[in-house]
Sequence to fold (329 residues):
Amino acid sequence: MKKIYIDPGHGGTDPGAVAYGLKEKNLTLTIAKYIRDYLKGYNCSVKMSRTGDKTLSLSQRTNDANKWGADFFLSVHINAGRGTGYEDYIYIKLSNQSKAGQVRAIIHNEVVKVLSRYKLVNRGKKKANFHVLRETKMPAVLTENLFIDRREDAALLKNTEFLQEIAEAQARGIVKAFGLRKVSPRKKGTTSSKKTKPSTQDKKPSKYTGDSIVDYLKSIGQPSTFSHRKKLAQQYGIKNYTGTVRQNIRLLNALRDGKVTTTTTGKYTPRTFKVGQKVRIKSSAKKYSRSTVTIPEKYKQKPYTIQQVGKDDLLLKELYSWVKKEDTY
Ligand SMILES: [Zn+2]
Fold:
């Protein structure tokens, strides 16, 4: 099993870069934990240099990874110095054809998709003589995730949805680079299935009648991840699947009927929304409206202030995130 070592930069008495009320050490830990959580769904073991606000020297980090025998080392940082955007590094003496260079290219590719969605600057693939890149015995990459001292970047760094997206892009890169396989989630009380690749062929009759694609897939024993839904969407002729409400309803109907349909459910009754008004997120809500990230349970059923009103969604002030109108009450 591949061993993936995730190193959230700084920590403890070393806050890293600080600006706009943000500390690099906290952001790197948040991103690293999202990466770890994503990788938990794959056949690899993950170790972090720290999982809390702990002081660690650079040598402690690289020694720990070397001793553990990691197959890959990823160090997560936030940039500073009046620039903007994302960049990543491999050790200065390595070529782009080295293993580190190859893995970095794949991670970079995944991150670029997020950058373009948020219209962020790609500062490119770089090389440097950083301790964590030089002293690690395994391929190592260091990512610099936006500039903490740039107002626009800082605003995104306050957005947990964005942090999750940029983290999961890096995790997806690792999954692709190392060919990691998804592990089937164990269901309590049932014997685990031997199938590793669920397909639309092995259909289980579903008793689920709601309009959530995620819950429907769970009810038929299939993964509800974005990548699996995208695969299914392709099979059912839904082009350019990005996980919009409309596409999810089409996919749900297609799965239920075995064919593609363009009808949408008319369940949602429009309400009026005003800036400053308070709304809560329904417990049935799945994803934020402008990304493929799942809304954490802890954010649901709590009051938030509408900061901006979109056509079908609302910007919630306290979350810095867009949520579908129909997912609020
Ligand atoms: Zn740093």
User: Anything to note?
Assistant: Residues 9-10, 16, 24, 77 surround zinc ion (CB under 6 Å). The longest strand covers residues 72-79.
